[in-house]
Write a structure and sequence with these properties.
Elements: E1 3-10, E2 20-26, H1 36-52, E3 58-64, E4 67-74, E5 77-84, H2 89-107, H3 123-131, H4 135-144, E6 153-156, H5 169-175, H6 181-222, H7 231-236, H8 244-266
Parallel strand pairs: 3-6
Antiparallel strand pairs: 1-2, 1-5, 3-4, 4-5
Helix pairs in contact: 2-4, 6-8
Length: 267
């Protein structure tokens, strides 16, 4: 279980402009040295994107690649957390609630007048990032924050589901000032790579299906009785050992086909 980043943002109620970063703490030590700069930029970009699309007084969770991005907008003051899939959702929102409480206790309503991103560290946020790596610490807060039981958490399958109609993450990447040219190139390259891998999977499956179809037609043409046959039983028959490989094709196509449909559903 890991928390990678915590952010506090000022969000406009109407979503007319991008949120302002009030505080930001991240731990990217588990990434390669040359990746860390781009990872920090993507954290800010995704955090700003999700925060902007979280309605006032609502909580939502968004799956983005291997991360769960949790967001809580409290009347324009918004906390966003990047956790892995194993970090409990309710513990995540308990932590975000505590972060907002601490921010208002320390800064009051001064955040409402902030116009530009704050680059100065907020010590509490860095401490929370370390302390609450253990969900048990957040669970202690959960016992106090009973209002979470009465608040609906909106769960989204992917980050695309929180975007407005007609919006695409790729176009937001191109327009974002949070990402350097290098990070934008990396993002585009990753999307192209994923599309290419999906294409290879589809091409491989349909090629094997086509080959199997030819094998079945050959068996049917040599079936003198011209009666319907069970292809699996036919291949298992001792007289047709040469067709054993086709049986393996049938099994593999069923397996690969199931994987393919699952991938198409989550793309």
């Amino acid at each position: 279980m890991k928390i990678t980043a915590l952010l506090v943002l000022k969000c406009n109620p109407d979503g007319s402009s991008d949120p302002v970063i009030l505080a930001n703490a991240s731990d990217v030590s588990h990434f390669g040295y040359f990746q860390r700069s781009s990872v920090r930029e993507f954290i800010v970009f995704v955090g700003r994107t999700v925060g902007k699309r979280t309605p006032p007084n609502q909580r939502q969770s968004v799956q983005h690649e291997e991360y769960k991005v949790h967001s809580y907008n409290r009347n324009g003051l918004c906390a966003v957390g990047f956790m892995d899939d194993h970090y409990p959702v309710r513990s995540s929102f308990s932590l975000l609630n505590q972060v907002l409480d601490e921010y208002q206790k320390n800064f009051g309503d001064s955040w409402r007048a902030v116009k530009v991103d704050n680059t100065q560290p907020w010590p509490y946020l860095n401490e929370a990032l370390t302390k609450f790596q253990d969900p048990a610490e957040a669970d202690k807060l959960l016992k106090i924050q009973r209002e979470l039981d009465e608040t609906k958490i909106i769960l989204h399958k992917t980050i695309d589901s929180v975007l407005a109609r007609g919006e695409r993450l790729d176009s937001l990447v191109d327009k974002s000032s949070d990402l350097s040219a290098a990070s934008q190139v990396i993002s585009i390259a990753l999307h192209i790579l994923r599309a290419f891998v999906h294409y290879l999977i589809i091409a491989s499956v349909f090629t094997r299906i086509f080959n199997l179809k030819l094998c079945v037609e050959l068996i049917c043409s040599t079936n003198r009785r011209r009666k319907p046959i069970n292809v699996v039983q036919y291949c298992e028959h001792p007289k047709h050992e040469e067709n054993q490989s086709m049986l393996y094709d049938i099994v593999s196509i069923r397996s690969v086909g199931a994987i393919l449909w699952w991938r198409l559903l989550v793309m």
